[in-house]
Amino acid sequence: MRIKRKTRIGYVVSNKMDKTVVVAVETAKRHPLYKKTFKRVTRYKAHDEANKCTSGDRVRILETRPLSGQKRWRVVEVITKGEVVEVKPQDIA
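Request: output the structure for the sequence above.
Response:
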């Protein structure tokens, strides 16, 4: 019997490493005493074999075996491409 693997949906916040992206997943939690809902952001390092993800992309990641010291997730699909505007220092002045 195969165990169903966890999936998460989040946004790519960094793609500076080779074949690795950092995905921020936001979850809503409820405080046990005060019942107020607050957001918690968890960052996962995920394997991106084709280096197709860029910052701002919304992606689905899947739990997998350990691929390195910190990578335990891999990118399954890019849901939407992000709109990230690159600003050069000479454009600011």
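Residues 55 and 88 are 16 Å apart (CA to CA).
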